[in-house]
Amino acid sequence: MVRTKFCVFFILMSACVLAQTITLHVTGIRSNSGSIRIQFFDTKKNFDDEKPLFTKTAPKMSMNGGALIVSYAVKPGTYGIAILDDENNNQKMDYGLLLPKEGFGFSDYYHTGMSQPDFRKFSFVMGNASKTVFIKLRYL
Asked: What secondary structure does DSSP assign to the chain, as a single string?
C-alpha cells in the first residue's frame, strides 16, 4: 500500500516537473468582442494540415489597452503558436472576398505576407525553463 502511494506520488511529481509555464503577450487586439483562439502546433506538417496539437481559448475580459496576457503549462518540446482574434466566436477565420476579416498572429513573428507563413519562422523550442512569447495581431 505504501509502495503504491509512493509510485503514484512520484508519477504525479514527475509530470509536474516536466511541464513549464509559457506566457503569451498578445498585443494589437482591436475590439473586446469574441475571444482569442490559441493553437499550439508541434510540427510543420501539422501546421500545414491545420491540425493543432491542442487549442486554448482566452476570453478578452482581462484585456487591457488592446493587450492580453495568458499563461499555460506545457511540456518541453518544439512549438509554433498561431492566434486568431475570433471576434464572433464561431471558432474559425472569417474571410471577405479573399482576405481575412479577423486578426491573426504568430509566436515571436509578425507575418507581413499574404500567404501562410513557414512553420520554421514562428516555431521555438520550449526547454526546461519558463518562456515568454510575444504575438502582435495583424488585421487586413
From this structure: -HHHHHHHHHHHHHHHHH-EEEEEEEE----SSSEEEEEEE-SHHHHHTT--SEEEEEEGGG-BTTBEEEEEEE-SEEEEEEEEEETT-SSS--BSSSSBSS-EEETTB---SSSPPPHHHHEEEE-SS-EEEEEE-B--
* Beta strands 20-27 and 131-136, pairing class: parallel
Judge residue 106's burial from the number of C-beta atoms within 10 Å of its C-beta, 0-12 exposed, 13-18 middle, 19 or more buried.
Answer: buried
Q: What pLDDT band is residue 3 in, cutting at 50, 70 and 90? A: low
Q: pLDDT tens for residues 15-50?
A: 445 799 999 999 999 999 999 999 999 999 999 999
- pTM of the entire structure? 0.86
